[in-house]
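quick q for whoever's on today - can somebody do inverse folding on this one?? i tried earlier but teh output was garbage lol. tokens:
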């Protein structure tokens, strides 16, 4: 693992340990309108918080995107990867979070083809973009396919994942 990836993972681990309970302990939320996040992580650049659903506990790892993978996005783009129970299978992306300068995002949107994700928030000249899986990459009805479907973000969860500071 490269030094930048270690730094990103270290920052996320510290943020997860310092805030809310990342272990998945439930409070009294029977009447809550939306699921409680299990962890509130701070982005590598400190510009936003990442609110992950409780059901994700123990099922993902975080990595950073390379320069080629992130394109025009600012450094620090993150990918949350599902860890299959079958160790012979590769990790698959559950979520990618990237930050763009407003002008860069406008340029990306003006290009042909589908955008790299959906804008979910904007603040201080930056646009926060989420990319979700288009399909389940696992063989239907296998334990990993079932769990991957359960872990996918629900539409009502998407707006709350990234919260600019």
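ok took a stab at it. sequence:
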């Amino acid at each position: 693992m490269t030094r930048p990836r270690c730094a990103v993972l270290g920052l996320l681990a510290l943020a997860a340990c310092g805030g809310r309970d990342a272990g998945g302990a439930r409070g009294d939320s029977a009447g809550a309108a939306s699921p409680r996040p299990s962890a509130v992580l701070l982005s590598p650049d400190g510009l936003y918080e990442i609110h992950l659903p409780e059901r994700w506990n123990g099922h993902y790892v975080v990595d950073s995107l390379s320069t080629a993978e992130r394109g025009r996005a600012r450094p620090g783009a993150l990918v949350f990867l599902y860890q299959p129970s079958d160790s012979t299978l590769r990790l698959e992306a559950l979520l990618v979070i990237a930050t763009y300068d407003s002008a860069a995002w406008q340029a990306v949107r003006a290009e042909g083809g589908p955008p790299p994700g959906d804008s979910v928030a904007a603040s201080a000249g930056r646009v926060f973009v989420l990319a979700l899986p288009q399909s389940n990459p696992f063989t239907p009805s296998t334990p990993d396919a079932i769990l991957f479907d359960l872990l996918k973000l629900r539409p009502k969860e998407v707006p709350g994942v990234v919260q600019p500071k």
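fwiw Strands lie at 37-42, 48-53, 60-64, 78-82, 92-101, 118-123, 126-131, 162-164. also The helical segments are 3-18, 67-70, 102-110, 143-151, 158-161. so keep that in mind when u check it
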